[in-house]
Amino acid sequence: MLKNLVLTLVIILGSAPLSAYSDSKLKVGAILALSGDFSAFGKSCQNSIELAKEELAPEMQERMEIIIEDDGLNSRRAVDAFHKLASMNQIAAVITFTSGPSNAIAPLAESMRLPMLAIGASDPNVVKGKKFVNSLWVSTAIEAKAVYDEAKRRGYKRIARIGGTQEGVLALKKDFDALNKGDFDIVLDEDAPADMKDFRSYAAKLRNQSDLDAIFAILMPGQSGIFTKQVRQQKVTQPFFNVETFEDPNDVKLSEGAMVGAWYVQADAPTDEFLKKFQERFPDSSLWGVGACYDAIYLIAESIKKKIPLDRYLRSVKDFKGAQGTFSSMGNGYYSLPVVIKVVTETGFEKQ
């Protein structure tokens, strides 16, 4: 989901001859949201990329150079950064973050016949109709179905919804609404721009809703904690649910307990082995997208090791064993990544 909301790990690598993979140093550009409200997630991806690079075999470390640019989760800045990396740094691969930047860069990558791997970009338009663009993330269609089924299982009928205006959020809402054949009555539905921090008027409207079952809060990092706190201050007690962005320790801290018990849909958690070493190295880092960012580096490394052009490798890889577990290409730009239901607890985030 989090289209815009997403660090869209976009990886671009041309269909170069095999000799390009054997001797020359490979430059990888990473365009991440290292400033602004989404910076906690961008920095977590940067941390994961750093960890992956350090754990590569020494000879592969020598073969790969990673150049990082900040787009502040702004599509125009992401495109500028891409042009800079492609022309000045002559990168062979690029990593970006989220749906907005990914949608902006995808047509450029496709026209250059450069493979792109988007991370944190659940908007299906990122890969739709493209041969060189891939998404190492769960699509909004799959996320919406998981949210829909879980909300139905919990017996919700009347739902209030507030969501951002980013491409990923809009795609998620569209997919959810397409599934709704009368199971849910969305009684209050409002947009929340990414810079919105005062939700008291919406919270007051929630308080006046009768027979409300739950609150679908599709908000950006830096918003969820403030929103849930302000809603609870209005004595509104209905449960919160969301996709992806509740898994942010900083928002949980901001909520002062209001987010505890909230549930959300997320790509299945990274393996216990990976989480242990990541948290030991970066104890205060968000965990959002860290498995995908780590795996992106290793996918590139494997294509070099196997001397297979990245565009072909990304569309054909099978049983890849990475931080997110074992997965394969589905041949359409997506990968066999499962989703899970998780709950915010007082001590962290637990899988249902």
Automatic annotation (TrEMBL):
Belongs to the leucine-binding protein family. The keyword Signal applies. It comes from the Bacteria. InterPro entries: BCAA_transport, Leu-bd, Peripla_BP_I. Gene3D superfamilies: 3.40.50.2300. Keywords: Signal. It comes from SAR324 cluster bacterium. The keyword Transcription regulation does not apply. Residues 26-306 form the Leucine-binding protein domain. This is Amino acid ABC transporter substrate-binding protein.
